[in-house]
Amino acid sequence: MSYNYTGQVAIITGSGGGLGRAHALAFAARGAMVVINDLGGTRDGGKSSEDTSLTAAEKVVQEITDLGGKAIINGGNVTSEDDMQAMVDQTMSAFGRIDILVNNAGILRDKTFSKMAIADFKAVMDVHLMGSVIATRAVLPVMQAQEYGRIVMTTSSSGLYGNFGQSNYGAAKLGLIGLTNTLKLELFKYGIRVNALAPVAATRMTDDLMPPQMLDLLTPESVSPAVLYLCGKEAPAGEIITAGAGTFARAQILESEGQYLGADATPEMIAESWDKLSDMTTAKSYKQGSDQSQKFVVNAFENKA
User: Fold this and answer.
1) Which architecture characterizes domain 9-251 according to CATH?
2) Mind telling me the catalytic residues?
3) pTM of the predicted model over 0.90
4) C-alpha of 47 from chain center
5) Residue pair 174/131 in contact by the 8 Å Cβ criterion
6) pLDDT digits over 107-137, tens only?
7) Cα distance between residue 157 and residue 163, in whole Å
8) Domain map (residue ranges) of the chain
9) Element (H, E) at 33
């Protein structure tokens, strides 16, 4: 299957550098018209020391146009509803449609939870989680009218598995999985597929968190094929793809089959049955929350019969 994006329009937030830049160049190389959204701030969300906040975005647009592609700059803040609506309006004026949204914008304010200011927790949640919510809401009417769209949320292993000093980042990134899991159900009938990417790459977000030997392998370009796959015409829905250094994998939330202990169960009974009820050899992933509820009800009826 060939992945050709000629005639399609992709918005990529936070694409002035790092992963976003790599995604933008990858889409442009396959024919897409690209919107380079970048606020131009520092890694922690502060104001850039550069003369203009759009310098990084301008460079990416120049790279794309030098290669014969089409791209425009948008300097909107993903946490602003007005900015994201203006981005949609700008995109529609320039290109007439929106096929793809990659929610990639992010900041880091790492510190152990007990030492972290609530303001730093909220700032990271606002950009990663609410920024993705706001950008997605802004493009949604266009995609619904087209009856076609591809949306990628950028999650992280910090959200899926935890990471020391990143309670704010991890909470936001796992929140995006919850958002993905619901939007995959609500938007499927409109031809919109929503998925999540959990990347590991050497960017300014990670350049002082990993040794040089690892960073040399973890290029942003080695991640972008996963985004291209998730935005294809035959894209799945509700999947989590992990990607780094050329390796790609599927992640899932799994639940054991469990064991019926009765409505009058006690914590002692749970402790005694722990080995059996926690056995993951027959674990499975559920399509939606009601599937889990059905399991509980079926078990109760069968054991009372």
Assistant:
1) 3-Layer(aba) Sandwich (3.40)
2) 169
3) yes
4) 24
5) no
6) 999 999 999 999 999 999 999 999 999 999 9
7) 8
8) 9-251, 267-304
9) strand 33-37
